[in-house]
Amino acid sequence: MISDTHVLWVILTVSAVTMGLRLAPFILMAQLSDNQYFKYIGQRMPVGVMTLLVVYSFIHVDFTIEPYGVPQILSALLVLLVYWYRKNALASIGIGLAVHLTLVNFIF
């Protein structure tokens, strides 16, 4: 049987590590903001993340059976169109997600 003291120490340790990990970026921000590597990653990472999201979105779609990937394709095209028109990634992803969920749940 685990003692109450042992449980308390585990909770305190986990809490301290969690708080430390959450505070570390704010504490280290001044030191990391001048780092050229992090500036490079900050410029290149959004494209890489979006590419991975698109690949992940289509990886399990079977284009040989109904609905032939139509909801995914329409949603992806809408995301591109909204982003091209508004230049707002959050709005385009939100609208694309809403349309995709509507198509999947109510139409197809």
TrEMBL record:
InterPro entries xrefs: Brnchd-chn_aa_trnsp_AzlD
Record keywords: Membrane, Transmembrane, Transmembrane helix
TM spans (from-to): 6-29, 41-59, 65-84, 89-107
Coiled-coil blocks: none
UniProt-listed Pfam families: AzlD
Source domain of life: Bacteria
Listed name of the protein: Branched-chain amino acid transport
